[in-house]
Amino acid sequence: MTTYYTMTKSPVGDLLLAGGDRLERLHFSSGSKRKPAEPDWCEDRTPFRDAMEQLDAYFAGELREFQLDLRPRGTPFQLSVWSALREIPYGQTVSYGELARRLGNPNASRAVGLANGSNPIAIVVPCHRVIGANGKLTGFGGGLPVKQHLLALERRARQPDLIASY
Description:
By secondary structure, the protein is an alpha/beta fold. The protein contains 5 helices and 6 strands; from the N terminus they run ββββααβααβα. The termini are far apart.
């Protein structure tokens, strides 16, 4: 199967989107986990129109839940962690330990952290919503400033809900 890719601009830098009939990767152009396009991939924006539109809406504070067909590739454990990440509500955070408890294995916080760090579809699978048990931001493939930006974006976008509820 052919892998297609494109680069798109965002407030946190250029993003690499890649996949075939579904989104398989979304990587930052900066940070410790940046990944370039592979030499055998074909550049084409067409397969990623929905993803780019939804990313634009997310960064504008208008989208809280992505509706995209995804195909992350990983171990069964990684897939279970990535699925659990998608259940963390917009604008909220959980610790690695809490995520491990939600998965039924409270002693697996380090394994959860490793799986979180291997997330191939950043932002859409919101690994940025996982923080340390002490409430501090911990490692992030796009860099901690990007993680801070994403969490701040979600906090700001939630504020109208708080005001409207009074």
